[in-house]
Amino acid sequence: MKIAQIAPLYEAVPPKLYGGTERIVAYLSDALSDLGHDVTLFASAEAETRATLVPVRDQAIRLDPAPLKSDLAAHLAMLHEVRRRAHGFDVLHFHVDLIHFPMFEDIADRTVTTLHGRLDLKDLPNAYWRWPMFPLVSISDHQRRPLRFARWLGTVQHGIPASLLPFSARPDGYLAFLGRISPEKRPDRAIAIAKRVGIPLKLAAKVDPADRNYFANEIRPLLDDPLIEYIGEINDADKGAFLGNALALLFPIDWPEPFGLVMIEAMACGTPVVAWPCGAVPEVIEDGITGRIVDTEDAAVAAVADVAGFDRRRIRHVFERRFSAEVMANNYVSLYQQLIHSGDADRVRTA
Questions:
Q1: Please, where in the chain does CATH 3.40.50.2000 lie?
Q2: What are the pLDDT digits (tens) for 83-95?
Q3: Burial bucket for residue 295 (CB in 10 Å: 0-12, 13-18, 19+)
Q4: Rounded-to-integer distance, Cα 245 and Cα 224, Å
């Protein structure tokens, strides 16, 4: 198949530091290419990919030092280029929310749109009622609940390359928190758990501008404890050791997480996860096998001791079976084929 992958322009593909959507686009593009498909990636120029790259911006918006820039203009320019080349693809796979809808209405049946974010936002239902013709893919079944009426083609869970993060059989004696410092990610809860169990906690986390006050007022005062170490953002080269050497990953979220990529990154290393049952967590974690799902701090404290005895090799095997990039790519290929065959049937009926 000839497949176009259309990435957001906010981060590099894959991101140099924090970033989820662009990371998945990178892994998917490479995995589809490895399966023998003709893949073209529309992204910023520094993308690293085995697909054919069409650079539509000189660099990712976040990495651009220009003080003034327009993300809307950058994405519209990219979509114009995608539209200009659209005739050359069997499938156009968008990862840019719904900004492309007005420009691709007439060929919606050749598009797939993966929605990577939360969907319980006020203005979304009206927009999806307005453009019901676009086939959508969710990254968890829970994610799609606010838009049950939409044209869901399927759910495809995220995957990462099997060789990206090494398996670690013998962890060091610390807990890990990886992600963003924000109220919904609950680093404060992770810190409280670590203090109660008396095990060091390392936080490798990004602080967005919108969360700087939260970090300064709520989290920084908690970092004085000798058990707590704030590392800041880390890159992929450091992520394997960080997660693999941890006794467990703490994922104490307090929001409807659409997927939670860090959970499968930990699983790739053999590291169990202690997580709250929000959003997609029960779809990702197999309770008692790859981690424990808890809903109170007391339960989390007990779970830390429990997961320390889990079979890390078994966790890695679950990752390979469910969450490799190859598994993700094959699941998308099935949806692409379903879409193409449906289009062929429609053309026969109208001939």
A1: 2-161+325-350, 175-322
A2: 999 999 999 999 9
A3: exposed
A4: 23
CATH topology of domain 2-161+325-350: Rossmann fold (3.40.50)
| Phi, psi torsion values for 78, nearest 5 degrees | -65, -45
How far is the C-alpha of 40 from the C-alpha of 8, rounded, in Å?
Answer: 14
Would the pTM of this model clear 0.85, i.e. be above it? yes
Do 69 and 8 meet the contact criterion of CB atoms below 8 Å apart?
A: no
Separation between Cα atoms, residue 282 and residue 289, nearest integer Å: 12
Neighbours of 247 (CB within 10 A): 21
- Could you name the CATH architecture of 175-322? 3-Layer(aba) Sandwich (3.40)
- In this structure, what are the phi and psi dihedrals at residue 4, rounded to the nearest 5 degrees? -100, 130
**Dist. CA 302–CA 125, nearest whole Å:** 41
Query: CB under 8 Å to 252, separation ≥6 — which residues?
Result: 185, 186, 189, 190, 193, 274, 275, 276, 300
**pLDDT < 70 regions, the chain:** 343-351
